[in-house]
Every structure is written in C-alpha cells, then in structure tokens.
Amino acid sequence: MTTISDIAAKLGISKSTVSKALNNATDISAAMRKRVLEAAAEMGYISRRSYGAEKKLCILIENMDYKTPNQFGHDIVQGFLQMAEADGWSVEVVPLTMEFQRLTPYGVFMLDHGYQAAFVLGFSLLDPWMQEFKATQIPTVLYDNYIKNNPYIASVGCDNQEGIELAIKHLIGLGHKKIGLISGPLDSYILKARYRAYLGALKKYKLEVNEDYIGLGYFVAESTRTYIPRLLEHGVTAILFSHDVRAFSAMTECSDRCIQVPRDLSIIGFDDLPMTAYTTPPLTTIRQDRIGLGRCGYFAINCLLGGLPIGSILLRAPLIIRDSTGPAPVE
User: Fold this and answer.
1) What structural domains does the chain harbor?
2) What's the whole-model pTM score?
3) 158 pairs with which residues across the strands?
4) 58: number of CA atoms within 13 Å, CB side?
5) Do the Cβ atoms of 226 and 289 come closer than 8 Å?
6) What is the pLDDT of residue 47?
7) Is the pLDDT confidence value at 22 over 80?
C-alpha cells in the first residue's frame, strides 16, 4: 500500500508537505497541492480521510437525466440511495462533463473529495475517465459499461441479449420476418451490446441480416425522420429501438406520416419508462428494473470495498407486451 513517505520520495519533498496537501492545509500552494494529489492518485494512494468518521460515496452522472420520476436515471439513483443511506453512507450526486474530466484526473477528484467509491452512470466510451478506470485502484462500479482486468472495477446492467431475443421471438410469433433496428451511434458500450444482441437474435432465429434494415444516428428526431421511411421502403414491418425515447419519437413520426402502429408497423422500445404505458398506442418494450439496478450498484460497491473482486451483475430484461406490436401486414 502506498504511503505518504512513498509519495514524498517520488516527488523529492518532505512528508509534512505531502500531509498538508492531502489534508487541505492552507499553508501550501495550489500548484504543490495539485502536484501531490496527482502523484498520490497515480500511485494508488488511499487517503486516511476516506476511512474517517464520514462514510462518503458518490454517483457520477453524465448524459443521463435523473431529477424527476419520469427521467431514466431517477430510479437508478433512488435505488442506490435507498441501500447506501440505510447503511450509514453519505452519498453525493455529481453531474460531470467531458471537459471537467479532461482537466481533472479521476484519482485526484476522488482523493480531493474524500470519496471511498463511485457509481458511474451515463458514460460513453469517449469519456476521458474511461481510460483512467483501466488502472484505478479506487472501487468503482459502472452502469452499462465494462472494464477488463481490473479487480477494482465492477459493472451492473441488464441482460441485453435475453431481452432482445425475447423481442425478436415475439415479433416472429406475429409473423414478422423483416425486423429493423434504429439506434444511437455505436460510441457507447451498451449501444454496441444491443447492436450485437440484435444481430445475434436474427441469426439465432434464421432471419435475414441486412444493413438496409439498420439506422444509426445521434439526433433522435432526425434519425426517425430519416430511417423510418427508408426501412419501410425495404419492406421492414417491425422496428426495435435502442431506447424508449427513440421509440416515442418514432410513434410521433408515424402519426405525422399516417403510418398506423401496429397495423402498418410494429414498434418495440427498450427501458420501460413510466410513460410507455400511456403512449398511443401503449408501447411494447424491454424492461430495465431501474430501482434494482441502483441497488445492485450499491451491492457491487460493497463487495469491492470488502475486498471481493466482483465482475458483472446482470438483471433479467423481460419483454412487456402492450399494443404497439401486432400481426405483420399482409403483403
């Protein structure tokens, strides 16, 4: 375990200077404190402050709304808080940006705030801290991301393969043979996982895999405007969406184009957001138990803090059948 003496020797400064930097003393320059924190983080130093009177965890969140019950991240945060606060932890929810990550190393941030572990939501593969997670010695749990070969990192999510296979099987039972996918760009671990699950399910059930049945785009409304008519032109009769929000947009687009759901096109979302039961028609979707995911996030952190190098926790992803899927149109 890295000590204050080790940090002092590396930097060629006194142990008292290192101690002052790590304990926020006022008689040390900001530049020196930054230098010490960066070295401490690089060497895997664990501050004694982290094991003091206050038990502190953080939820780091980016690209995910969470403040109101209708937003995807809300229940994940609440599930985590329910478990952590009952065990006496203080939890801070910290919104982040890529720019902040570029300016502040992950280890420095955690040391500076005295956090013992982090639950990370909404990161893409492009986030700077995703690279730092590969070598960190700070217990860290990722939602819908995965880091190999680091015993201090765990992940939680749902079984995308199972959920998408259930969706494809349901559509096959309704007579659909040409099933499309509309998704965000493949710059996130989870969108890649759902894309692979879609391809795997088509192959499993011996359906045609055709690039013309797939639409990938960053902007939700623009993607649906572009790809729904294009997929329909290629004879697609059902579309799986990577998220419910994209499915909502598709239902609006279909209404504007006088495409009747599910008579002309069946639609399946992913997430089971609260409003899915109240769309017109109610949305068939793959459910993520978001409260459960938050609880699993805390469970995984507890394991890591206890020295148990847990890998991944996957929850079941049931298909919730509503009225946006129906028999394939007769050709």
Assistant:
1) 1-45 (1.10.260.40), 49-158+292-315 (3.40.50.2300), 160-289 (3.40.50.2300)
2) 0.88
3) 315
4) 21
5) no
6) 63
7) no
